[in-house]
């Protein structure tokens, strides 16, 4: 009797395996069309294109500004406090306020804007590697030309942009 129940169990397992095996197609299922997470819509493509054009325009403005005020030989500032002599690397093309505030923060200085900010943002181009913060601020000041000044007060630990008053249509 023990033998017949064992045979019955074996027979049941084999029958189940055969029946379940018959359900299989035998060939692996291949997806011919992979699912795309998200295809860009027309609005997103237009926004990306507009952002690219704006970036190119900012780079062009910065190049024009550098051409208007060519490189000036200036002596290094030897008596600057240690936090302003800290070496930094910056690659920036854009509004002067943003990069100047970032440099002030890196030096542990407060940032302030004096005067009326122009309607059209003043654009600067900075591409320096391992240069002191004070030299980068000087570079920005030279690019500003007559439109504004960068002032650094080490005793009050303050960096300021002083915008020149608007004197007319081209001002």
Automatic annotation (TrEMBL):
Residues 1-22 form the signal peptide. InterPro entries: DotD, DotD_sf. Keywords: Lipoprotein, Signal. Pfam families: DotD. This is DotD/TraH family lipoprotein.
